Amino acid sequence: MKLTSKTTVGEIVADDFKTVAIFTKFHIDFCCKGHRTIEEVCRKRDIEENVLIDHIEKARNSSANQSFDYKNWPADMIADYITKTHHRYVAEKAPVILEYLDKLCGVHGAIHPELHEIHTIFSKSFLDLTAHMKREELVVFPFIKKMKTAYSKGTKLETPPFLSIETPIVTLKDDHITEGQRFRRIAALTNNYTPPVDSCSTYKVAFLMLEEFDKDLKKHIHLENNILFPKAIELEKTFEKVS
């Protein structure tokens, strides 16, 4: 893919996930705001376009840290991968993180009151993500799989209760924006997940787990916003053409 000032961040990351390191370095949101162009993010961050593009090209040409070619996976395969990898990660890790945050608030909350806000934000995030993932697993992802099967077999697609796949996708993307805002706040409250110098091991582990959770969530949102959802929308359009 040739890079231009009009290429979006989401398209770049979808084409090569190694470029995430560059967008992270320049503090550019590649998941919730992946629709922005190189021109837009450079203007926002006061970065020279040629400098950012040069960094991106170097990352794309690097053979290190090769990742899966998600962009060329079929939509149903991506949906299964997200469920088994990222949904499972949230379900397994979030309760453990909450346990650590409970302990930190009890022991260090008086000296570090920001821990209480972190706990509140993360608790709301886990609650909302659980509902969000259920909507995907019970409604949206099964319909994506039905579309893929109908397309492969050349059969008629049944009309979903939401009329168009774009309807639930809009809501899901709004959820992603909320989570992005929440974790930007957590990152600010934790000084980018840097525990105090005199912190105990529980403090360090909790912040490390929060940082890993944040990174996994960014990839999770990227796969949906920039790869799965566009594929689902395009797949649905093929049935419109047939009818």
Task: From the structure above, extract its key features.
243 residues; globular; 2 domains; mainly alpha
Task: Describe the structure in your own words.
- The chain has 243 residues and is an all-alpha fold.
- The chain has two domains: 9-61, no CATH class; 72-242, no CATH class.
- Helix content is 72%, strand content 0%.
- The chain has eight helices and no strands.
- It has helices at 9-15, 20-25, 38-45, 49-61, 75-108, 114-153, 166-189, 201-242.
- The longest helix has 42 residues, at 201-242.
- The protein starts with 8 loop residues before the first helix and ends with a helix.
- The relative contact order is 0.14.
Topology:
Blueprint: H1 9-15, H2 20-25, H3 38-45, H4 49-61, H5 75-108, H6 114-153, H7 166-189, H8 201-242
Helix pairs in contact: 1-8, 5-6, 5-8, 6-7, 6-8, 7-8
Protein name: Regulator of cell morphogenesis and NO signaling
Subcellular location: Cytoplasm
Keywords: Cytoplasm, Iron, Metal-binding
